[in-house]
Amino acid sequence: MKGRVYVMKRDETEDTPYVVMSTFFIHSYLVTLLFDSSASHSFVTSSVVNKLKLVPSYRSPPISLIALI
What we know:
This protein has one helix and four strands; from the N terminus they run βββαβ. The two termini are 20 Å apart. The radius of gyration is 14 Å and the shape is flat. The chain has a two-stranded parallel sheet. The protein has a two-stranded antiparallel sheet with strand order 2-3. It has one domain (2-68). The relative contact order is 0.31. By secondary structure, it is mainly β.
C-alpha cells in the first residue's frame, strides 16, 4: 500500500474547510493537533510518542509514504 504525505503550514489550515488545527492537553502535555476529515490514515510524531511514553505498533503490511514538498 502506498500513501502520500502533504506538508501544510499553520496559516494554510485557515483556508482549508476540511482541516482543523487546535492545541490540546494530552496527559498534561500540550500537543498541537491537525484534524483532516479527508485523511485515510493518522500519524503522530516521534516526539509525541516519546513525551507520552507510548509504545508504537507496526502495520502489516507496512505503508510506503512519499513526501511531496
